[in-house]
Amino acid sequence: MKNQQLKYLFYATLLDAYSDYLHSDIIYQEYWGFSEEPPFSEDDFHEKKRLELIDRINRVPFDNEAADRGTVFNAMVDYLITGIQPEKMQIEKVFADPETYFNENDGDKCNGKGVVALKATYNGRTFTFPLSICKEFSDYYKEAIPQIRTEAILTTKYGDVKLYGDIDELMPSSVHDIKTTKKYTAGKFKNHWQSIVYPFCLNENGNQVYNFEYNILLINSRVSGDTYETFTEHYNYVPEVDIPRLITYVESLIEFIEDHKDLIIDRKIFNNE
User: Fold this and answer.
1) Is CB count within 10 Å lower at the N or C end of the chain?
2) Residues forming beta bridges with residue 229, ordered by sequence position
C-alpha cells in the first residue's frame, strides 16, 4: 500500500539542478562574466536554468556530451573494480601494439601488457581515457561497492519526501561521487547536495557514514591532446546542522514545484499522484 503521507519523490541530482537554478548568477559570472560578447544576458541565462529545471522534473530526455563523458568514465572505473562489462556500453582495451600484446585470456580485468587506454561508445559518442587515469581512480576505490541505490524519508512541513539516488562508490567509511569537468575552480561542488543527501539516507538506514568526497577529473583539452588533473573536495556530514538545512532546502524546492505545477507533466515527483 502506498504511504499516504509520502507526498514527493526527489532524486539527489534534482536538488543539484535546483541549486544551479538558484545560483545561476554565479555560474554565469564564472563562464561569461569577462566576455565582451556573451551568448545571452544574465537574465536570459537565469530563465534558461529555470526551464532546464522544469525539463529535469518532467524527465525530458536531453543530449549532453559532458554528461555522456562522465557516464563513460564512471563505467570504466567500475569495470576495473569489478571486471564486469556495463550493460549500456562495451568497454574496449586500447593496446600500444595489438599484434604483440593482445592476449585472448586477458579476461575483463584489463591486466594485459600493452594496454594504454580504455575506449567506449555511448549515445553515439566515443570516448577514450588513459588506463593510468582510470586505474588512479579504481585503485583509490579498492574496497568500494559501486553504484549503490540509497533512499530515506525526510519529513517536511509540506509532507514526507522520499530522497533517493545512486552512490558512485561506497567505501566502508565514506561516500564518493565521481565528477568529470573541463573547467574547475576550488569548491565547484560546494552548493551541490549529494554530499548531504547520500549520508543522510545511509544514516537513516543505520549505516553511519559521515565522510563524503567529490573526486574530480579535470580534462584539459589541447590541440596536442588531452591532459588530466585530479582534485578532491571533502565534506563532513553533521546531522544536527545538515538535516535542518536539508529540510529548509527541500521545502524551497517543493514551493518551486507547486508554483510551476501547471508545467509539470511527469507526475512521478508527486509520488505518482
Assistant:
1) N
2) 218
pLDDT of residue 273: 54
Position 245: which residue type?
Answer: R
Residue with cell 517543493: 254
**Considering the entire predicted model, what is its pTM?**
0.87
Tell me how far apart the alpha carbons of residues 266 and 2 are, in angstroms, rounded to a whole number.
18
| Average of per-residue pLDDT across 167-196 | 95
Measure the CA–CA gap between 158 and 153, rounded to whole angstroms.
13
pLDDT score of 113: 62
The 10 Å Cβ neighbour count of residue 200 is 21
Q: What is the DSSP code (8-state) at residue 240?
A: H
- DSSP assignment of 169-200: EE-SSEEEEEEEES---TTTTTT-SHHHHHHH
Q: Decide if 138 contacts 81 (C-beta within 8 A).
A: yes
